[in-house]
Amino acid sequence: MLRFFRLLRQKLLSQNLVRKYLFYAIGEIVLVVIGILIALAINNWNEKQKLREYEEDILKEIRTGLVNTREEVLRSIEEDLRWRACNYKILEYLDQQKPYDESLDPCFGSYFWSSTLQLTTSAYDELKVRGLELISNPELRRELTDMFDYKFDVIKSEVEVWDSELLSSTIYPMHVKLFRKYYPESWQVFEDEFAKPVDYQSLLSNEAYKNLLAEIISLRNYSIVINQSLEKDLQHLIGSIDKELKALSND
Length: 251
Description:
mainly alpha
């Protein structure tokens, strides 16, 4: 094809047909420009396809992480409810001056425990590096940043406050003075621990310990409410991603 155009150009020049040659030259330029434009269009289309495929893949990964995080939140709520029941039981025995009962031992061993949420953020972290604008739906972008950059940070800070400021500095120092940990033969790893009071009779009148229990109950109530709200928000965001993935697949 190129050889044909070259021969045609040489023929026109040799015959001194300048006007025809100009028309030919312009036509040749137009063809080249059209070819370049077609190539650019194809390249742009390919790039858009790659970005669309990445958007779908990263949304699927984020969705999987959110599902895992939701399961963690539900587990945390269940654990907080169980430990709160222990807090109430201990406080009831102490306030009502009830005699010691061995059924309290699992509560004495784990009343101060707190669940640690494993928040799955790896896919979102990758998206932030690549650029959040790769998510084409602005409302979904807002929902993602609200969840990962705000709500998750609040949860992390609450855990840090519990672990570093309350548990290590206040609860545990008092706990090791008042209780002695033990493990029954039936105990298995990851089960709640057991402990016996060093002096149950003095524990009945220990107002500082009772106040600490009341504080733990209050914090657990707050944690349960926060996690229940987070679980609903996670469910909503998962639904938003499902809706967007369906829209992307139909485009």
